[in-house]
């Protein structure tokens, strides 16, 4: 399967990204980067499909539209659950949106840029680009969050989750997702899904599969994808100046989304 995917990327299409062919029964797992999307994919893979997700097979279960072409996505069993970081897209008819405190997002995203893009600048310089929304194609954190929360036409078809709630009461947040998708699972099945995606298990898989996973193979080995920001919350990591910069840039949106 891994060889097939590599050949598909070479011989067929580029990743679908914004050009994804959306189907009426698609469910999109959406967030701004570094907001808990991968963790949720691991849990939902086990909870919904009873498959132990890892860094090699996750694209076959809950695919990432930045790593798969439309041709590859057509091979996924329907209804598809697809990972996306895209800004608001009216074609998405059913969305699970994860919102994380932007002050934690910027810390985690800085580590991600160091691991995957060889970024060698400090947090202050990174923060400038982050606030400008010029790091990538997803725009600013505030416009991304508000776009999805306020622009979705049918509010019954979007489920807004907060990363802090997922972390503090994971079973209850997973139950919200199950209700949203009209899926019935027992408390024991929910517990198994949570255990399959705890930080130690995911970190173990990361180390074991760093030579197998296309995603991990080309990244810096001295920075962990899973444990890169463990214990580093914005309260105990950002200095006073950095806290002020983030608060000034995002205060209105932080207030609107309950952070």
How would you sum up this structure, described in words?
- The chain is an alpha/beta fold and 259 residues long.
- The chain has helices at 2-11, 37-49, 58-61, 70-73, 102-117, 123-132, 141-151, 163-168, 170-180, 187-196, 199-208, 214-217, 234-237, 240-256; strands at residues 27-31, 81-84, 95-99, 158-162.
- Strands 2-1-3-4 form a four-stranded parallel β-sheet, with helices on both faces.
- The chain starts with a helix and ends with a helix.
3D shape: globular
Task: Note the gap between the termini.
Answer: 42 Å
Q: What is the overall pLDDT average?
A: 92
Strand element count: 4
Q: Work out the helix count.
A: 14
**Secondary-structure class:** alpha/beta
What is this structure's SSE topology?
Elements: H1 2-11, E1 27-31, H2 37-49, H3 58-61, H4 70-73, E2 81-84, E3 95-99, H5 102-117, H6 123-132, H7 141-151, E4 158-162, H8 163-168, H9 170-180, H10 187-196, H11 199-208, H12 214-217, H13 234-237, H14 240-256
Parallel strand pairs: 1-2, 1-3, 3-4
Helix pairs in contact: 2-10, 9-10
From the structure above, extract its key features.
4-stranded parallel beta sheet, 259 residues, alpha/beta, 14 helices, globular
Give the structure's gist in a few sentences.
This protein is α/β, with parallel strands linked by helices.
């Amino acid at each position: 399967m891994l060889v097939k995917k590599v050949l598909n990327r070479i011989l067929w299409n580029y990743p679908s990204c914004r050009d994804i062919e959306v189907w009426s029964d698609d469910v999109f797992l959406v967030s701004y980067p570094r907001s808990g999307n991968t963790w949720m994919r691991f849990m939902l893979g086990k909870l919904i499909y009873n498959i132990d997700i890892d860094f090699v097979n996750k694209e076959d279960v809950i695919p990432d539209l930045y790593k798969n072409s439309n041709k590859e996505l057509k091979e996924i069993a329907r209804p598809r659950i697809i990972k996306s970081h895209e800004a608001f897209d009216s074609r998405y008819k059913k969305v699970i949106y994860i919102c994380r405190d932007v002050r934690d997002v910027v810390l985690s995203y800085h580590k991600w840029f160091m691991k995957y893009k060889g970024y060698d600048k400090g947090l202050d310089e990174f923060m400038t680009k982050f606030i400008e929304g010029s790091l990538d194609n997803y725009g600013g954190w505030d416009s991304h969050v508000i776009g999805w929360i306020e622009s979705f036409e049918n509010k019954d078809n979007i489920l807004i989750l907060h990363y802090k709630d997922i972390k503090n009461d994971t079973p209850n947040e997973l139950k919200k997702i199950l209700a949203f998708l009209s899926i019935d699972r027992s408390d024991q099945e929910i517990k198994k899904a949570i255990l399959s995606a705890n930080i130690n298990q995911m970190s173990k898989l990361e180390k074991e599969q760093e030579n197998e996973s296309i995603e991990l193979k080309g990244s810096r080995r001295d920075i962990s994808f899973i444990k890169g920001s463990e214990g580093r919350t914005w309260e105990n990591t950002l200095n006073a100046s950095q806290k002020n910069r983030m608060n000034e840039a995002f205060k209105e949106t932080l207030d609107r989304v309950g952070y």
